[in-house]
What we know:
Strand order of the largest sheet of chain A: 26-23-20-17-15-18-21-24-27
Shape of chain A: globular
Shape of chain B: globular
Strand content of chain B: 25-35%
Number of helices of chain A: 9
Number of helices of chain B: 9
Strand order of the largest sheet of chain B: 5-4-1-8-13-10-14
Strand content of chain A: 25-35%
Structural class of chain B: alpha/beta
Structural class of chain A: alpha/beta
Oligomer: heterodimer
Largest sheet of chain B: 7 strands, mixed
Distance between the termini of chain B: 61 Å
Amino acid sequence: METMMGLINLEHEHDYLSELTYFRCGAAVPFAGRYRMIDFTLSNMVRSNVQDIAIFTRNKYRSLMDHLGTGADWELDRRNGGLFILPPDWNDPTDISRGDLSHFHNNRDYFNRGRSNYVIISGSQFLSNADYQEAFEYHLERKADVTLITTRVQNFEKEHEASLRIEQDDRGWVHNLTNEHSNPHLFTGVYIISKELLMKLVDECIAHHKGHFFLDGIKANLGDLNVQTYEHVGYTAFINSVESFFRNNMNLLNPDNYKELFYKNAFIKTKISNEPPTKYLDLSEVKDSLLANGCEINGEVENSILFRGVKVKPGAKVINSVIMQRCTIEEGVHLENVILDKDVTVRQDQTFIGSPAKPYVVAKRKVM
Amino acid sequence: MNSKKETVGMLLAGGEGKRLGLLTKDLAKPAVPFGGKYRIIDFTLSNCANSGIHTVGVMTQYSPLLLNKHIGIGKPWDMDRQHDGVSVLSPYTQKEGGSWYSGTADAIYQNIHFIDRYDPEYVLVISGDHIYQMNYRKLLKHHKEQNADATISVIEVPWDEASRFGILNTTDDLRIYEFDEKPAEPKNNLASMGIYIFNWKVLRNYLLEDARDVKSSHDFGKDIIPAMVSDDRRLFAYRFEGYWKDVGTVRSYWEANMDLLDMEGMVSLNNKEWRTYSHDSNYPPQYINGNTNITNSFINSGCWIRGTVDRSILFENVEVDSKCTVRESILHPRVKVGENSVIERAIIKEDTVIPPGSYISTPEGEEPFVIDSENVELAVMK
Lengths: 368, 382
């Protein structure tokens, strides 16, 4: 049986989340109460029978490595294969590669040693609960060179502008990838390719001093390659700005979105911590919110997302906000449209109000 | 050959827990869900982990499937180790036959070869059906300081309850001269907590002797301890101050759960210095939907709450629909409560679906109802 090996390529993801990405890469940004962005891609790959996953990362990867560990929480702590975090420590004096091609060039061993003949490549900014096994079968069945996972978007938001749009002929082969904003058929950044073709295109790109594998190796060769699409149907989110981060967190307070993202296929896996159940005290008033474990709620929480171990003291109000791990909201505080990064303490009787389009963001470990 | 360990923990987890009724219908007592996320045995396993005792044998017998699966290779307690860690010890047969564990002492006797592999100085004997947070290192220190052969952890119980316990009568320096199992007229209110430290060489001999005695019930409380007392061995009591509860009955199980809500200072799940470890099934965050009213409760991941919850404990993936009231109740994993229902002072077993409009209420002061998918229809009629 043919299988895929995985690659999560973070090279071209910029640290787009201002305060939230001062000290971590986008893939390690906390999301939806208990996850990090990368959990969605990892979980989707694991459930699609992918047993080897490499991560190309260049900088700010400390918190990513801390989160992933040996990969055990995604069942990737394998004697054969498993998780390979590949930061850039390269010492090849003959290396002329550029951009993400350097990752491919310097990590040829990963591909050569892997047991799969196919590779599924993804970034971390596209969130969904997907099973790529069907897409892979479709890839084999049509003997495609490349299969792009796509999705159709009903309501355009700013975060969709960066995505490439699909133009296909009547047999489904992709002949153009554009930035035509009115086209609702979006490339998600996830694609399937055979290992052999991947390495051939990598060599060509390097020989021609190119610096972006997908644009230079695939997009530039659409005429010569059989590129097809497989459309993902279901809830999706693209996150590439603070505004889209905030809005897509809030979107999960819609029960349909929550169920689609978390209960549709298998669970999204994340690092297991050891928090007790969340404790609601005498004065807790909670409405339309997501709460992770280990919280202690004795104030008002409305339309908000609370990560693990958040404390809300009596008389405090948290409205339309995203409060990350181990924050403490003291008595009489009023927060509205706020994002607090981890370990923030807001001292008594203060008010911070942002707007949905421009939430008030507080960096890690601050005492306000 | 394994390297020598100073202390080996032996955790008795084979009990059927008859008095827990439906709660242990097809489940060993130590595996009964507790505290919104845990199983009862997590408290003792976490005590071992937090006390730095990483060589632990868990003796299972009754309905062990879920218990064995829960313990696995001991990962949540950091007991997944190369040479020691946790070992599940089930009854076995050999060339000359075999038998079930016929008592607590027999369970240890049948596993002498396991303990000998580590050539320990001390053996800690504990049970997997008590709720408490205790540093066994302190007990061990006391044991060494007294130069004892055995040390038994004791707790002061109210005088009027003392006749329900094994009572230890001691001299002023806590040396034990008499062990009274459930005395009609207790002389003392120091109750044995079923936590023992023995010098392994001494205990080993008593176990061999006890095994030869056909009249013995092979029980620590009834046979081993009295034999050591009558031989004038150095037995000492160690006073434990803190929360300790034997969850032997449905009522005490319910009370112990409620204690987690009321006695935060005494027994805390959120104590970073003394963590209670368990599995986590990766459910998404709990969803509080609409205008709910949740007070004084523990709620785990994957829950979906639309009604009123007060003084209750909800395990993972429980759903409480709108216009429901859940009060002083314990809802095990994946329980679904249909809208317009009332649940008061009840324990609902996992996967039970409570139909809309149900009314389940245990009268104040009575033993809480235990509801599962088979008796749910009857219960609703009440």
